[in-house]
Amino acid sequence: MDEQTSNSSYQHSTIEEQSSYRRYSTAENTNNNDDTNKRKCPWGKILVATILIGIVTFVIIDSLTTKYISTGFQEFLTWIESNLVAGVFAFMGVYFIATVCFVPGSLLTLGSGFVFGSAVGVGYGVVLASIAVFVGASLGSIAAFLLGRYLMRDCVRRRLVKKYPVIEAIDEALQNNGLKIFLLLRLSPIVPFNAINYIAGVTGISLKDYVIALIGILPGTILYCFIGASAGGLAEAEQEVPQPVTI
Description:
Blueprint: H1 2-39, H2 43-64, H3 68-82, H4 84-100, H5 106-120, H6 122-151, H7 153-161, H8 166-169, H9 171-187, H10 193-200, H11 207-213, H12 218-240
Helix pairs in contact: 3-4, 3-5, 4-6, 5-6, 5-12, 6-7, 6-10, 6-12, 9-11
C-alpha cells in the first residue's frame, strides 16, 4: 500500500514538473516572439508616416508664411467656375487629398459654394457644392480612418490620442454605441474634422458605423456652402447695382 502511494505521488510530481516545464517553455517562446516582433522594423509604415507628416508640416508652415496653397486654391476655384462638370469631379479629388493631408476644409467648402453659386445660381450652386464636398470629404475621411487603423496606428496613438484624452475615455463605449457617439461628434462644429478621422482608426468603432456616421457632416456642409453661395450672389448683385452719376 505504501509502495503504491509513493508511486502515485512520484507520478503526480512528475506530471507537475512536466506541466511547469511546458508553461515555462510557452512563456519563453512568447517572450521570444514578442522580442522578434519588436525588432522588426515596419519600413512601409515608417515611409507612409514620414510622407504624411512632411506634407502636414509643409501645409502648416506655408499657411503661416508664403501661402502658396491658399493662392492655389483660389486659382483652382476660378478654374472650376469656367469648367463646371469637370470642376465638380476635380473638386471631389482635391477635397479628398485635403482631408487626408490635414488641410483645413473650411476655405474649400465656402469657396465651393461661392464658385458654384456664381456659376449656376444660389439654389443649384448649394446643391452641387454640397454634393462635391460631401463625397470628397467622406472618401478622404474613410481613407484617413483606414490609414489610422492599419498603417499609422502607433503614430496616431502617440500624437493625436494623447492630445484628445476624451477619446480614450469613450473608447469602450464606441465598441457598442459607436454609431450614435460618432454621429454626435460629426454634428458638433468644435470637434476637429481631420484629426477625428485618424483618431477613429485606433478606437473600437467598426468601419460600417463610422461610414454611416458621416451623414452627420451634411448639415454643416450645407450651411457652409449656402454661406459661400450667398456671398457670391451678393457680390454679383453689388456689381449689377448702377453706380451714382456725378455731375
